[in-house]
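Lab meeting prep.
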Amino acid sequence: MKGKKITLFSTLELENKAEDKEVSEYEKNISKKNKVRCTFNGVLDEEKHLKLNYITSNKWLKNDPFLKEIENNASEIYFHVLRAINQYESEVEELCITWRGDAEELISKVRDELAQRLSEATPTLGEAEIYRIADQMTSKWIALCPLGIE
């Protein structure tokens, strides 16, 4: 393997895998919203789009097990985390409807605002965990629709 380039996954492999299985409603939401995020000057960057779909899906799927781990190990912190998430989720849809910036700015705003609220609600939770929760929840909201990107 000396001097040979190694590719862990290629765009073609991702496309073939997507064609081989039935696409869920959640995957359609992710793809639709990430298409907006990966379109520059009216041109979709297909490779970035596929990679971003993969990243978003992985973050979303890792969210519930991570929250369950917090619940099992620190139920009081979990209660405060869930309360902050649920309260902010109710505001995200309205924010998306009235948003006038670009898609990436909206994603950053939602992620950062959730991290701020989690930090205030759970000062004993570490910064890395707070940002992980905010990042994963943002991906979950992309998949499940509260975070609308037009």
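Slide two material, second protein:
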Amino acid sequence: MKNCSNCGKSIPADSKFCIYCGAEQKMVESDNKSDEQPTVTVQPQQTVQQPQQQTTSDNMVTATATTNKPKNLTAIIIAIVVVAVVLIGGLGVFGYQNYKRNHQTQQQVADLGYTKATKVFGKNIEVYYNKSVNRFDIIGKDGSALDTDVRAAIGDEEPYSTIYKYKDKLKEFNESLKSKMPDKSKDDFETTIVNPVDHTRAIYTVRDGNLVYNFERDGF
């Protein structure tokens, strides 16, 4: 309640005019500001994304480029072992073959000569190996081309030129044997076409790929 500013009578505190005299009342603001509640405006929270800063400290692990290393060391080791085994095995095989070549019997050398000679002269021949003189003797069997041609030439039925081809064949035979002969025999062995009329005489003899005896030149 408050008193009218004109007549002094009590009127409600919020009256703008006196209910008794009608006088306009002045509004008096309350001095008790402690009852007023301040208005607080809440601003929406904004999230500010700060740029990341690259820092380095003792506690940080920095990724570094790695050098490519063999991913399968076991496979590499196995490959090396396999290569080594192959090399050792190859050397072993070579050594064994070399041993066999250098320890052939006289019969084995003779058989080797026959095999090589038939590839050059044909199968209708005979081959003998004399180890003491280190010589292969080739004789054409009766009726063979070698036997017929040689008999005709030395019997003057045909010119000598008809058997010149056998000089080249004999050289070929000699060369084909060289890598198969024992080391102690391969440089000086001889290959001979035997005279079919006299087996103690030769028609042609080749040593180390060279014609060392020619019946035309050296006589029978």
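Talking points for slide two:
Confidence is low (pLDDT under 50) at residues 30-36, 53-65.
Strands lie at 2-3, 10-11, 125-130, 135-140, 190-194, 202-207, 210-214.
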